[in-house]
Batch of 3 targets.
Target 1
Amino acid sequence: MNSVRVSNRDFDLVHTFDCGQCFRWNRQPDGSYTGVAGGMAVRLREEPDSVVIENCSESELASFWRRYLDLDRDYGEIKRAVSINDLMRAAVGYGGGIRILRQEFFEALISYIISQNNSIPNIKRVVERLCAAYGEPIETEWGTAYSFPAAERLAVLEERDFRALGAGFRDRYLVGASRLAAEGALDPEKLAAMPTAEARAELMKVKGVGNKVCDCVLLFSLGKFDLFPTDTWIRKVMEESFSAGSVSAAKSAGEELFGGYSGFAQQYLFYWRRERDKIK
DNA sequence: CACCAGGCAAGCC
DNA sequence: GGCTTGCATGGT
């Protein structure tokens, strides 16, 4: 099996894959992470001076994984820029190996619709069932993996099919979003090219996509780093540390404080605050 | 049993 | 614009 080696500078597998931005990267007993993207299944492993990507060729690294893993961005610069106070220095110190993945648009859209009023373990469970039921199988050395289903595949489903996967009341949103995407009404390249505010307005026309889901999709799949997705955890931390209590106040405060680095700051804060709560 | 989980739409004001 | 309520499902 071929593998490639990349720098581990500002890149930690636990931080990146368990910070909450993605739902389909799974930590293995040996500490490696397996996942699927771009129709490819790979395994990442940390070594003392590098990260090894297994089941990946140099050309696959160059054409896909380098961008997906955001390996060409200078996170040292980002971390300096968002370290505006003691809280942010603590959060950056805690999750300093986070990289914002460039996830595929349709996968992010469906996953974050499922995420609303849901718990992360349950989100992962439902997404995994969706892939096992409707994705393409990929045979690997560590078992059968499944790609995230194409929009065309999900567009023929009915509400009851999503309900059978445990999606609950989000079933009708998933039907609608899948059909819109399959029709080409949601073109990720067009959305990516739009100014952030316009892309938000466009994506929020989808039923089941509100402020928070919209921001997560645009941040985690289209690189709209000027967004500060504000969920219960971020609202909490902004209330505690920046006295911005409401969701809208927290979001605008975050975006004013961090500007084009809002998405990175949000992710350091989210990971730090949520892990801190877990330990207690 | 109640309450919460990476919220949202609809119905009010 | 902002506020309230119901919502499938699984966990504590």
Target 2
Amino acid sequence: MEKILLVDDEDFFRERLNRAFIRRGYTTCTASCYDEAMAITRKEQPTMAVVDLKMPGKSGLLLVKDALVIAPELRIVVLTGYGSIATATEAIKLGAISYLAKPADIDEILKAFSNDSNLELESLTEDILPPSLARVEWEHIQRVLADCDDNISCAAKRLGIHRRTLQRKLYKYAPK
Amino acid sequence: MEKILLVDDEDFFRERLNRAFIRRGYTTCTASCYDEAMAITRKEQPTMAVVDLKMPGKSGLLLVKDALVIAPELRIVVLTGYGSIATATEAIKLGAISYLAKPADIDEILKAFSNDSNLELESLTEDILPPSLARVEWEHIQRVLADCDDNISCAAKRLGIHRRTLQRKLYKYAPK
DNA sequence: CCACAACGTGGCATATTGTCGCATCCCCTG
DNA sequence: CAGGGGATGCGACAATATGCCACGTTGTGG
């Protein structure tokens, strides 16, 4: 039986993940920081883990490294608010099996766990086209917004644009 | 003595890299596609390689995988036009030691070769703040522009904006 | 030499943004 | 319960930015 460890400092998000996994029949355990996660890894011996990168105190990267020392078989997927190439490569080098940018739905996460290396074929055939400026903008907005718990004022501040402008962008691209 | 293999389908960029490495005292060899690179790997036995991800025919990812089969000690850095988390994690899983987005200058590349895992400490202390919208936009423009050999008309098309608009953005953010 | 593609530039109509103000809602605390 | 603080939605208006067309220039290849 698979047992999944969920690590995220943000209660709401962690519980949402938790419910989703339970609904799919998985056994779960949760932690909100490095120390808690390490303790649970020792006690519960999970077989899979979903780890948020950004946490108060010790980072998710360090958790990946240390957890694998005491549980080498653990399969870890790292989640992060803003995907950064640097942290992604670092996480993989430390032994994580995948790295996803929030918002990641459960299906994506499960796919990341199962997925070994079938991405290659796609990458080979697919012609790599640059995303449009508008698309890049939109995706970044979504990431920051998720990181601010959909707090528009906060997100606007971090994005360096006016709150009114963010409102209008959101309205425009989310018609329904 | 270190011997570096440079793989990029684009002559201009490859030669620029080549000159820069030679100027720094490295021995180099170059290839413009998968087959050429594999042949040279066998013959010349380079110790390091810089591989462009996007090439006509077989992808740089496949090259990473196959080259490491015949030269397990080879240290490979992957370069790419548009940094994508998915391809970055894939490259690392296949055995590349680092993954950089163009435009990457030689110093960055050399740093990537030397750099083992000292990134961790920074990531731990640094508070991860989202980049502003303007910054994300600018970086994306730079990547696409580089991919179009600074062809403004072409880049504008791919970005989904008007050529005149791109011109104005470039003028605005590159004042000198 | 000509065709072609890309560049820089100006002008102008239209679209987007910044800024302010205001009403509302929610949460917390005295 | 009243009041303060913070978030939200929205209207209005001026300041900017953008799309679009046109023209002249330059470099390249047939």
Target 3
Amino acid sequence: MGKLECESELKIDRKLALSDAVELLSGKWKFLILLDLYYSGTMRFKDLMQTLKGITPKVLSKELQQLEENMLITRTVNNTKPVTVSYALTEHASETQPVINALIEFGKKHRYKIISK
Amino acid sequence: MGKLECESELKIDRKLALSDAVELLSGKWKFLILLDLYYSGTMRFKDLMQTLKGITPKVLSKELQQLEENMLITRTVNNTKPVTVSYALTEHASETQPVINALIEFGKKHRYKIISK
DNA sequence: CAGTATCCAAAGGGATACTG
DNA sequence: CAGTATCCCTTTGGATACTG
């Protein structure tokens, strides 16, 4: 405080929040998983395996666990035979919607920009 | 087309755009670099080294190169002695502003959510 | 069906020292 | 000042096979 070279509390808070968000949502698949769940509401493990082309069960399992740890999705075991498991977004995950929409917009504009040069 | 299990073109486009964006902006530091440049307009290498606490010159150099390749920042060598180099955002980088703001909002809400349980 | 186990290659990223 | 070079460890993530 008082020194010119000091960053404001506000800036520091924003940087911390940004770091948090980046860490939480890092990885190749997390956003795509969230997007699929936005579209479909509830999905089984095998459904996600199908729509996320190229993912392996090990990787999908790990990503889902991390999303669950961070309270962005729920995991529900159904009383069927054989057992099925359903994944769905939590209410808190709705906070990621603006991020995903913004990313999609950026991705579209970037692709357009690349093509048109 | 016509099959029920087919995904719409729109969905596929959105998934591709999302993948593109994630790939372009992946990594621990890129968003923080962009945020710093938003705040400061133009920064030198050593300025970024200072504000990005913990980054090493090798890593910073690589991140800056990738951002430049993707036309999100410009690199300008100044006629000073010793030589200095300035980095600044491109116009195209303004498309990332909504993403960054959304991430910050999410990061704040997430932290609040964690604390209050 | 919903994963786990094992193995492995590549990338990410940090520490340190050096250079034009 | 603005990097590069080298070394090295960890993480990510893919391939494949297996299990309750």
